[in-house]
Amino acid sequence: MKVLHIFFISLVALMFSVSHAAELLISPVNIDIPPGEKSALLMLQNNSNKAIKIQVRVRPWDWDEEVNQPRNIVVSPSSLNIQPGKQQVVRVVNVGPVSHPDREQLYRVILDEIPDLEQPAEKGLVLRVRYALPLFVGGPDLSISRIDDIEKLTKIWQQLLSYKYDAVTRQLVFKNQATGHARISKVKLVDAEGKESAVFAGLLGYVLARSEAAFSVPELPLAEGVQLYAEVNGVTLEILADGR
């Protein structure tokens, strides 16, 4: 019974967070400071009918609650009180050495909504909503946001990104040989007749530079003539099988 109770509370919190997330519009959801630049802007818009208090922090990509904010990245302002229907802009600044295309630095921008304890909680629940946004500083130009050349990016990623499928664990394993990250989403299969079947409709995840990452997916009917497509850093392309 205790386990069911915890699961129920978690499910309520998840449902609340999903519906509540629509009240805070965040743009962009992938923050990028290209090589040679020092800052990026993050826009927050309050679409609710009450003020929203937000605390903004930066953490390393692999972080926990004990990790302090990196000294070379600052945000301003770090605390916001956004009125209903209003927007506020947060500046994310690299105060360290100028970023370089050969060295990609990865962080997460953490947005914590601070509950208004003076207001009565809905059904006795006080929930704290957290958003974690990826922040990339420097690194090569491997995304549509930096290079508006789909053909060039397609050729690059078909050379540097490959996959293999583990039918036992039902995992797609991506191998990224580039010096920058690959954001993988909208994964689908296309058969020899051009018929498409969705594998994962949204964001599947990130494969960091020169690394591998495995993602659990439904069973894939891979066969002769079936191709795997995905959106990689904003470009839809065929991803070749590892060793092909």
From TrEMBL:
Family annotation (PANTHER family): PILUS ASSEMBLY CHAPERONE, SLR1668 PROTEIN
Keyword annotations of the record: Signal
Leader sequence segment: 1-21
InterPro entries attached to this UniProt entry: Ig-like_fold, PapD-like_sf, Periplasmic_pilus_chap, Pili_assmbl_chaperone_N
Domain Pili assembly chaperone N-terminal: 26-137
SUPFAM superfamilies to which the protein is assigned, alphabetical: PapD-like
Pfam family, one: PapD_N
Protein name, entry field: Fimbrial assembly chaperone
